[in-house]
Design brief:
about 900 residues, alpha/beta, five-stranded parallel beta sheet, 22 helices
């Protein structure tokens, strides 16, 4: 197309003939297919030039034109055809005057290799070169290519877009395949950085050298590597040569491709049921108004100088006469149009590369327009005179050019003002006979980092309608967490069940989440459930059993107290210090009842009363036993009535032991409550699914001080009772006290290790059982034998006071049959040298309804006997008269 200003276009127009795959087919019957895909570049160039020439606001006195030079795939042919195209057949290189060149700019592409090879030549003459192919990192070196301008936008966000697609389908095990050039190395770094941010793992990365089809050894290595791969998704970033490698070696994989793939290069690449699933990221561009109508109107009659269009028309619509070889356009179908051709032969939809050509032509037009405006300010042009700027003059304007094309896009070379590329995601729909359809299934916006995808429109393999998986390890379900495998990528892991009281309610969780204290993890470890409050309740069997034991034993203690009160005048009650027995029994009743404070739902009051009531009640009981043992020892160790011990016994000094001991315990409890009182606490570990309510002692030191003080009293009582174990056999309370304290100490010594090993309600139950067991031991060992004597051995009748009391002494008692009744009775107690056992004959005369009341006791003649009996009789203030001589009297 002629014009005042010419643009040279230099790119290949492929005519690809693909032979039939059937090797037995004769050569003359081989199936051939002519592909005119790159002819769209000519159509876009023609459309842009005509649109500019029709625009009255651009290039008022000048017209644009272009000349196309076909590209041949040989280095010498490339340079030769370029020189002939640019300088003419008869001009000698390096000697021609470039100022008289008819070309203002050169369009090259779509391959970066073509642009780079021609750029070296064009830079010598500072020809403005516009590369309309995909952005090439090698061409961005302005020092090496100062006159080259890339129309395509940088793929700054393509790595983010591809990784977003991986995340959408949860593909985290991916292979990377690129060319071994600057573009491949750049995209590898971008992809690996973006994948690392989103925890997507790279199984392998292969950089394939250029012209690998001519290196069979390297091709075989790549083939073996890809076949061994366990990843189902490959990201492939390269050119059409790499596409052929993919066709040869990749089977059954999902291929995520960049936009510079020419799928029409191989007719049989995506056939029906093909195992490859291509998802192509194509740069988004707006529709150019009028282009579709322009393509419909194109025909050889309208552009007779376009010899390539004639070849397209003849090959596609068979315009030759069957009876002659004469070709006339009248023989073609009247409705023949390029938009009727299959898309795999000629796609009439404006491609990305064609859109870049469209913008390149407009860039040249705007630069020329600016230059003409500048020249108009400097000089006045003559009428009809046309001044054509030289190519070198355009560079200053091109670097600062900025305009809006008719489609509404902003075109500029300012990197700060340049918009990032948006992407359309294209899927290939396969049809029989090698036909395919490119279908837009989604978009990606770099500004919002938003991926929009219509999964139902994606055609997967013929055997599946669902997207396949591409993971190193199968995902961990709820209740499990990922445990990394040593020495492997982060995406390779084992699934480990969550620990107790931890849960994972999602898939592929890195860590399990610990449930709050008031919740617990279910058996599946996938959710936290509310814990049910649990405590040693009266309604459960253990609590009911302990409560019944406490009430039963306290009732028994109260009954024994009633027996002692009823038979308070009996010698066995009097002889064992009646007041101390009452105090001990009342203390034991409180000991039994205080165990009820440990049963039931705890609250602040019960938590405080538990330990203080327990400590004071047991202190009273143990101190009462200590007082009894001290009294017994004092009574039977006093052999000299005038000694100080006799004064201690007569003054009832042992009775002060109880209030003193209780006072010390009260002080300890007061310090405990004042510094760190017990409080309500929860135990979430002892029982699964329950939160146990219990009383926290707050200060273990204070608790063990109370318990230790109680233990020291018990040890003292045991020691004193043990010292009195050799008293005469007939007075056996010392042995009972010794045995009772042995039981008491044994229970609480056993309590300590069991209490520390128990948890939750069991710990409370152990303490309650120890209280009941130790109290029951005291009650049983001390008072049960006395009740047996009172209720059973005496048949329920009280025996004679003095005789009964003396029967527990160290002397044998012989009941005489001789007596004399009277209003005032005198007891005589002395040996008659006849040692007999008291008769238990049921026929012996008894005075059942008569209680003898003695006024005085007559003892002797031995002073030792009188002294020993005097100690006992002084307790009850009996008048004692001694029969011995004056030398044996003791006051």
């Amino acid at each position: 197309m002629d014009g005042d200003v010419m643009i040279a276009s230099y790119f290949p127009l492929y005519i690809l003939r693909v032979r039939s795959r059937n090797k037995d087919t004769p050569k003359h019957k081989e199936e051939r297919l002519v592909i005119f895909k790159n002819y769209q570049f000519i159509l876009a160039l023609t459309f842009a030039v005509e649109e500019i020439n029709k625009n009255p606001h651009l290039l008022h006195n000048l017209t644009l034109g272009f000349e196309f030079c076909n590209f041949e795939f040989a280095i010498w042919n490339e340079l030769k055809s370029a020189i002939l195209c640019l300088f003419g057949k008869y001009n000698t290189l390096n000697y021609t005057c470039m100022g008289h060149s008819k070309y203002t700019a050169v369009l090259t592409g779509p391959s970066g290799i073509i642009s780079a090879q021609l750029g070296t030549l064009l830079n010598l003459y500072m020809f403005p070169q516009f590369s309309f192919g995909p952005f090439d990192q090698a061409l961005s070196n302005h020092n090496k290519f100062p006159a080259l301008y890339q129309m395509a936008q940088k793929d700054t966000s393509i790595a983010t877009a591809m990784v977003s697609l991986l995340l959408h389908f949860r593909w985290n095990w991916v292979g990377l395949l690129t060319l071994e050039d600057e573009n491949g190395l750049w995209i590898l770094l971008e992809l690996k950085e973006e994948m690392a941010k989103n925890r997507v793992c790279v199984e392998f990365e292969l950089a394939v050298p250029n012209n690998i089809l001519f290196h069979k050894t390297k091709l075989k290595v790549v083939d073996n590597h890809l076949k061994k791969s366990s990843a189902n998704v490959f990201i492939i970033y390269g050119d059409n040569e790499l596409l052929l490698v993919v066709q040869l070696v990749i089977q059954g994989k999902i291929c995520i491709l960049n936009s510079q793939w020419d799928l029409s290069m191989s007719r049989f690449y995506f056939v029906l049921g093909s195992p490859q699933v291509p998802l192509i990221f194509s740069r988004h561009h707006p529709d150019v108004s009028g282009f579709a109508d322009f393509v419909k109107a194109v025909n050889p009659s309208k552009y007779p100088e376009d010899t390539f269009l004639a070849k397209v028309w003849l090959a596609s619509f068979k315009c030759s006469d069957s009876q002659s070889d004469c070709v006339t356009w009248e023989n073609c179908a009247h409705n023949a149009s390029l938009d009727l051709l299959p898309r795999h032969v000629l796609d009439t939809n404006l491609s990305v590369d064609s859109y870049n050509i469209y913008n390149a032509v407009y860039t040249v037009a705007h630069a020329l327009h600016e230059m003409l405006l500048h020249q108009a300010e400097v000089q006045t042009m003559g009428k009809g005179k046309k001044t054509v700027p030289s190519p070198a003059q355009l560079h200053a304007l091109l670097k600062n050019i900025q305009f809006q094309n008719p489609a509404g896009d902003q075109v500029t070379w300012d990197e700060k003002k340049k918009l990032e590329a948006e992407y359309d995601i294209v899927n290939i729909w396969n049809f029989p006979h090698g036909l395919h359809l490119e279908v837009k299934v989604g978009t990606f916006s770099p500004y919002a980092h938003q991926l929009s995808l219509s999964e139902e429109m994606i055609q997967w393999t013929i055997a599946s309608t669902e997207p396949p998986h591409s993971v190193c390890s199968i995902g961990c379900g709820p209740g499990f967490r990922k445990a990394p495998q040593e020495g492997k990528a982060a995406c390779c892991f084992d699934c480990t069940a969550c620990s107790e009281n931890e849960m994972a309610n999602g898939t592929d969780m890195e860590k399990c989440v610990k449930c709050p204290d008031h919740q617990y993890a279910n058996t599946q470890r996938n959710q936290c459930l509310l814990r049910a409050a649990s405590f040693l309740a009266y309604g459960e069997p253990l609590g009911m059993a302990l409560a019944c034991m406490a009430l039963g034993l306290s009732t028994l203690a109260a009954a024994i107290l009633g027996v002692f009160v009823k038979h308070h005048n009996t010698p066995i009650v009097k002889a064992n210090n009646q007041a101390l027995s009452y105090i001990l029994l009342i203390s034991l009743i409180f000991c039994f009842l205080c165990s009820l404070l440990f049963i039931g739902r705890p609250n602040s009051v019960t938590c405080i009363l538990q330990q203080t009531t327990f400590g004071v009640a047991f202190t009273a009981a143990v101190s009462a036993i200590l007082a009894k043992t001290v009294t017994v020892v004092l009574a039977f160790k006093v052999t000299s009535p005038g000694r100080r011990m006799r004064w201690l016994l007569v003054s009832r000094a042992p009775n002060f032991i109880i209030p003193i001991c209780i006072l010390i315990q009260v002080i300890l409890c007061g310090i405990w409550l004042g510094t760190s009182p017990p409080f309500i606490d929860t135990d979430t570990y002892s029982e699964h699914g329950h939160v146990i309510l219990l009383c926290n002692k707050a200060s273990l030191t204070a608790f063990y001080c109370v318990l230790g003080y109680l233990g020291s009293l018990a040890l003292a009582s045991f020691t004193v009772a043990f010292l009195a174990r050799n008293l005469p056999d007939t007075f056996n309370e010392a042995k009972f006290l010794t045995f009772s304290m042995l039981v008491f100490c044994s229970v609480w010594l056993t309590f300590l290790p069991v209490y520390h090993s128990a948890k939750g309600k069991v710990m409370v139950a152990v303490e309650v059982f120890s209280i009941l067991a130790s109290s029951a031991g005291l009650l049983g060992c001390i008072f049960v034998p006395k009740c047996y004597i009172i209720l059973i051995r005496s048949g329920g009748r009280p025996r004679e006071p003095l005789i009964s009391s003396l029967s527990m002494h160290s002397f044998s008692t012989m009941k005489q049959g001789v007596h004399m009744d009277g209003d005032v009775m005198i007891a005589t107690y002395f040996p008659l040298y006849i040692l007999t056992v008291p008769s238990h004959d049921n026929n012996a005369p008894e005075h059942e309804n008569e209680r003898r009341k003695y006024t005085a006791v007559l003892t002797g003649p031995s002073g030792i006997t009188s002294a020993k009996l005097g100690t006992l009789l002084n307790l009850y203030r009996f008048p004692q008269m001694e029969l011995g001589g004056t030398a044996n009297r003791r006051g």
